[in-house]
Structure formats: C-alpha cells, structure tokens
Specification:
Protein name: PTS glucitol/sorbitol transporter subunit IIA
Radius of gyration: 13 Å
Helix content: 10-25%
GO molecular function, one term: kinase activity
CATH superfamily: Phosphotransferase system, glucitol/sorbitol-specific IIA component
Pfam family, one: PTSIIA_gutA
CATH class: Mainly Beta
InterPro entries: PTS_IIA_glucitol/sorbitol-sp, PTS_IIA_glucitol/sorbitol_sf
Order of helices and strands: EEHEEEHEEE
Shape: globular
Modified residues (Phosphohistidine): 43
Strand order of the largest sheet: 1-3-2-6-7-5-4-8
Number of helices: 2
CATH topology: M1 Pyruvate Kinase, Domain 3
CATH architecture: Beta Barrel
Number of strands: 8
Length: 120
C-alpha cells in the first residue's frame, strides 16, 4: 500500500462537528476564509500523489474506511484547496462532485492532531 494523501487536522471550526450529525465531515486547508473555516476541519495541506478512487482507503483518527465513490472534482478540490466533503454513507455514486463517500460509522470524536490519510 502507498499513501495517496496525508495531512493533520490543526483546527476545528466552531460548527464543524455539527456536520458529523449528518454523517459528513468537511475539510479545508489552513488559510480558509473565516466564514468557511467555521464549518470545516482545517488541516495542514499535503500533496495529492495520485487520484482518489473507489477501492482506496481513508484512515481517519485511527479508523479505516473503504472509499466507495468519488465525485468528479473531489481530487481537484483536495489538491487545490484541501477541500472535500466526506460522506459516511457507503454510497456507490457521489451525491455531489466534491464528495468522497466511505463505508463505516461516522466518527464521533476527531481531535485536533488527528491524521487524514488516503492509501491505495
């Protein structure tokens, strides 16, 4: 297995955990506009070394989730903005172009310092 992308959560926006109640996690790299930052898990931005695709694995805060669908612009958004919306619903079709869907239970606690990593 090789790492496609890896980053560390450095800040959690005031309303970011609210999305977890809807089985979503929204990320953005450091330097996000303040109105967006409030709803995101902010991270130090890493390099995207390959395309995200169904079949790869998300490692988040010590848990592994199989990737089931990737929206058409999710990779570009992650590369350029550090922005994706993770959906913990196991869907095999992306709901929106910037979504990455994974199978598994939505995490209830993602502390600052947690790692987000995609591996293939």
């Amino acid at each position: 297995m090789h790492t496609i992308y890896q980053t560390t959560i450095t800040h959690i926006g005031e309303h970011a955990c609210d999305a977890l109640l809807d089985n979503m996690l929204i990320t953005f790299r450091e330097g996000a506009p303040a109105d967006i930052e409030a709803f995101c898990f902010i991270h130090s931005h890493g390099a995207l070394n390959a395309d995200l695709a169904p079949g790869c694995t998300l490692e988040l805060a010590g848990h592994r989730y199989p990737v089931t669908a990737v929206g058409s612009v999710a990779g570009q958004n992650l590369r350029e903005l550090g922005h994706i919306t993770l959906r913990f619903d196991g869907s095999e079709q992306a709901e929106y172009p910037g979504c990455v869907h994974v199978a598994g239970q939505t995490p209830c606690d993602i502390p600052t310092g947690s790692t987000i990593k995609f591996i293939a």
